[in-house]
Amino acid sequence: MLVYLDNCCFNRPFDDQSKIRILLETEAKLAVQELIRSGTLQLAWSYMMDFENDANPFEDRRVSISVWRGLAAVDISASEEVLSRARRIHFMGFKPKDSIHLSFAIEAGASIFFTTDTGILKKADLISDLALINPVDYEFNKP
């Protein structure tokens, strides 16, 4: 199964772990990454991930996240179709960068879009092409 993790999901382990929600999301995200490493899940990557990660002011975070590009089964480049779809998604009420991430995930053929962004998750029912879920809500024992 192909999955896409957005930038906030990749950055979750670097957030303040004293808050229980953040700690749980971090542990679930790390478990998803283990499934990617083991080959149970496949990772989709995009130009937008590179763009946002390159803008990260913390070198250790940039380096840690960029390693995942090498583990991606799919790396999607920008295209007119991706950008056109992103505009349509933006008109649904998603933020511009989130719209681009979602469009890349759809273009890649991902089944799941993992995010810890509550703004995206509140609008999950607007996107029918893939499941938008918090890693905490992923069914890890599902066959």
Can you give keywords for this protein?
alpha/beta, globular, single chain, 5-stranded parallel beta sheet, 7 helices, 143 residues, Rossmann fold, 13% strand
What do these coordinates show?
By secondary structure, the chain is of the alpha/beta class. It has one domain (2-137): Rossmann fold. The chain is 48% helix and 13% strand. It has 7 helices and 5 strands. The chain has a 5-stranded parallel β-sheet, with helices on both faces. Helix 7 links the parallel strand 4 (112-114) and strand 5 (131-133). The radius of gyration is 14 Å and the shape is globular. The model has no long low-confidence stretch (mean pLDDT 95).
Topology:
Layout: E1 2-5, H1 7-11, H2 20-38, E2 42-46, H3 47-54, H4 59-66, E3 74-76, H5 80-91, H6 96-108, E4 112-114, H7 118-121, E5 131-133
Parallel strand pairs: 1-2, 1-4, 2-3, 4-5
Helix pairs in contact: 5-6
CATH topology: Rossmann fold
The helical percent reads 40-55%
Rg is 14 Å
The coarse silhouette is globular
Largest sheet: 5 strands, parallel
Provide a quick synopsis of the model.
This protein is an alpha/beta fold and 143 residues long.
